[in-house]
Amino acid sequence: MKKFLLALAGAAGVLFSAPALAETVNCTAITAVPVTITAQGVYCLKKNIVTAITSGAAITIAASNVTIDFNEFKLGGLASGAATQAVGVYALNRKNITLRNGNIRGFNAGVYLDQNTADGSAGHVVEDNLIDGSTQVALSIAGSGIAIRRNRIVNTDSTPPAGALSAPSGYGASGIATARPGTVASLPNVGAPQAGTGAVVNGVYANDLIDSEITNNFISNSISPSQSYAIVLDAPSNVVVARNTILETLGASYAAGIWSYDAIGPVIAQENVFSSVVATEAWGIIAYTGPFLCVDNIVTGAATQTDGCTFEQGTVPTP
């Protein structure tokens, strides 16, 4: 019996232990950048790669049906400096691109999957990446059938520490947010933005997103001396934005955890958590025109929890 129990325990360990991250090895290795991918297939990183390019893209995808597994290695652009206009990964009018397991750091735009024709971009999956230190937008994506999930998007910051900015309206001389009409009173430890390029920043910018999801992402420290948004939806239709954690979205004039405008079809914002959305005008969720459903979201540390929801249920605290 003892031997049987030991054998059963061993089998259980095999059955129920969490698998380690499997490295993609059957792939075409990307060994240096800038590089252009012109054929469909599976590509990967097998080492950290850094670049000092200040424009263009480190990786350009010029084919559809391309998967890049970064294998937890870094694609780094910090050497380009705070004024960089370079993109980490770029594609235009492509379909079925998958980007996973990356550490994409220090670009003006970390990932930019764009379209300039109807139905030009579709089927993309961006998952399990760390996109860190982008200076304008971490992830910009357009098209239909898109899945953006389980990414960590941190320190999207148009204000690199090149000297303190004069405190904007609503901030104390120390840079700590103070009470002001129409905004949350005295959020502790929230500093004024630093001096920098001053661009509007977006954690995720989704343009013409159709039949898509933005789910289970962690977005923190989106900072600008002008406007800051964690997730922007431009003309979405049939989009689910769910179970995202959004912390420290800081701007001088405007800031929002989720900002949607011109929705064509329904958008569902469900079970998202927002904390510390700070600006002269700040919202957890704001929607301009179109059907927008707000269900079971938690919004704290924002002047206005929600604005523009065509249906709202279960917002905590209650508006």
Characterise this structure.
It is a single chain. 5% of the residues lie in helices and 47% in strands. The chain is built from 1 helix and 29 strands. It has a 20-stranded parallel sheet that branches. The protein is globular. 45% of the residues are buried.
Could you provide a short overview of the structure?
Keywords: Signal. By secondary structure, the chain is mainly beta.
**How many DSSP E strands?**
29
Quick check: average pLDDT? Answer: 83
Could you give the order of the helices and strands? HEEEEEEEEEEEEEEEEEEEEEEEEEEEEE
Backbone structural class: mainly beta
Kindly give the count of domains. 1
How many DSSP helices?
A: 1
**Radius of gyration, Cα only, in angstroms?**
21 Å
Strand proportion: over 45%
Question: What is the helical fraction, as a range of percent?
Answer: under 10%
- Low-confidence regions: 1-20, 160-196
From the spread of the alpha carbons, the general shape counts as globular
Largest sheet: 20 strands, parallel
Q: Give the N-terminus to C-terminus distance in angstroms.
A: 61 Å
